[in-house]
Amino acid sequence: MKAGPADPVSPTKARPMVLLQIHEPGAPPLPHAGDRPPAVGIDLGTTNSVVAVSRDGKPEVLRGQTGMALVPSVVAYPPDSGPLVGLAARAVLLDRPEWVVSSVKRLMGRGAGDLKTLAGALPYELDAAPGPGGGMVRLKVGERRLSPVEVSADILRALKALAETKLGGAVERAVITVPAYFDDAARAATKDAAKLAGLDVLRLVNEPTAAALAYGLDKGSEGIYAVYDLGGGTFDVSILRMAKGVFQVLATGGDSALGGDDFDHALAESFLAERHARTGANTLTTGEAKLALATARIAKECLSGADDGEWLLDAGVQPTAHRMTRRGFEDLIRPLVERTARICREVRDDADLKPADVQGVVLVGGSTRVPLVRRAGAQVFGREPLADIDPDEVVAVGAALQ
Ligand code: ADP
Ligand code: MG
Fold first, then answer.
1. Contact (CB, 8 A) for 337 and 372
2. Global pTM?
3. How are beta strands 40-44 and 173-178 bridged, if at all?
4. Which ligand has an atom closest to residue 333 CA?
5. Which run of H or E residues covers position 214?
6. What tens digit of pLDDT does each residue of 54-87 get?
7. Given a cut of 60, is residue 23 above it in pLDDT?
8. Is 143 an active-site residue?
9. Where does the pLDDT of residue 131 fall: very low under 50, low under 70, confident under 90, or very high at 90 and above?
10. Quick one: how far is CA 369 from the chain centroid?
11. In terms of DSSP H, where are the helices of 253-393?
């Protein structure tokens, strides 16, 4: 990987050349500040990432060719080509899972000493030998050994390229969001990834703060707000205090192993149990398990809008069809949703707050589209949640505004 063109002026050698360029007749004029392309806001998520821009104070989410703003935070490293990012990488996952890296955000800033707790919880192998960079965890991807920073940089490069295509110019500056609980090492790793991708980080902003900014809570009345964020693999809740336009994080909590993926698992298991009862086939290939999960994810997302539906599990010699109602699905995931509510109450207690102290709640993350989750978020804080902005885009919107 080549180093990014971060700083072309080396203090010893290049300075006279710069002067020379300025005085050279016919040289292109140096850009002045007003001509600089806009900075972008990036939500670098565990499951999905989003890039947005703010022009004249109006945020705009940048979408790819298919109209999708979400870029899956997945990178494939085929041995004979450059990395593939997003949907293209997710497509490789079915055939060659060993080339594909996902959920790399969980490894940001983690040392080799964290290997024991991490290994097994991740869908890829980690390298036990300490890397040259001083003990940072590294991933085994085919023959390659990659640091989480390098993989993150590949995701950021893809987002930068998307923004450059949409904005028609070079994009070199970004505000990037990170979870409120990220420690210094994880924040430094995020900055390193940006630098490697050729992005100058103007600021790292906490994800819940970005969500609150997207709703303009910094302009409204002073008070205390909760941000309930249920994504693909993680749950985070934060309590923010807004005073004089500045947010302070009062308390955070969550579960780094609880998210929409668990809803997929619960539904897939129900489909597979039904399939077993009907066909007698109780062995399951890895391919069938993956297909069951993919089908469950589609069914789950449908059931956020529809009351019921039927899905075909087209696996093995005998495809089976499975009906599910929203009620039935809610029964499957209720214990998981109740866990999020319990964590919310604990965090509120940690911050020494009474239920009535929390003035509003913001819903973030794709999984808050599930009606049961939305109701739980509302109920636990006793407030009608703010959810007008697309929950997968709200963090990027806030980053762009910042
Ligand atoms: P992250 O913050 O972890 O990157 P996201 O906020 O993008 O993740 O959330 C991804 C999760 O949201 C996935 O589990 C996905 O299935 C889920 N999701 C997206 N749309 C819906 C929907 N309409 N109904 C239910 N879940 C959804
Ligand atoms: Mg997120």
1. yes
2. 0.88
3. parallel
4. 1
5. helix 207-214
6. 998 899 999 998 899 999 999 999 999 999 999 9
7. no
8. no
9. low
10. 16
11. 260-279, 286-303, 326-350, 371-381
Element (H, E) at 239: strand 235-243
Token pair recorded at residue 218: 């910094």
* Cα gap 375→247, rounded to integer Å: 26
Report the pLDDT averaged over residues 49-55.
Answer: 96
Is 207 designated active site?
A: yes
Q: Which of 207, 236, 255, 393 is catalytic?
A: 207
Distance CA 110, CA 185 (A): 7
Q: How many A from CA of 231 to the centre of ligand 1?
A: 5
In b/e form, how buried is each residue of 388-402, taking b as 16+ CB within 10 angstroms?
A: ebbbbbbbbbbbbbb
Task: Spot the catalytic one: 150, 154, 218, 229.
Answer: 229
Contact assessment for residue 182 and residue 48, using Cβ atoms and an 8 Å cutoff: no
Cβ atoms of 103 and 233 within 8 Å: the answer is yes
Query: Is 150 noted as a catalytic residue in this protein?
Result: no
pLDDT tier for residue 157 given thresholds of 50, 70 and 90: very high
Question: Residue 120: phi, psi to the nearest 5?
Answer: 95, -35
Q: pLDDT tens for residues 193-238?
A: 999 999 999 999 999 999 999 999 998 889 999 999 999 999 999 9
Residues with CB under 6 A from ligand 1: 45-48, 70, 231-234, 259-261, 297, 300-301, 304, 365-367, 369-370, 392
In angstroms and rounded to an integer, the radius of gyration of the C-alpha atoms of the chain is 23
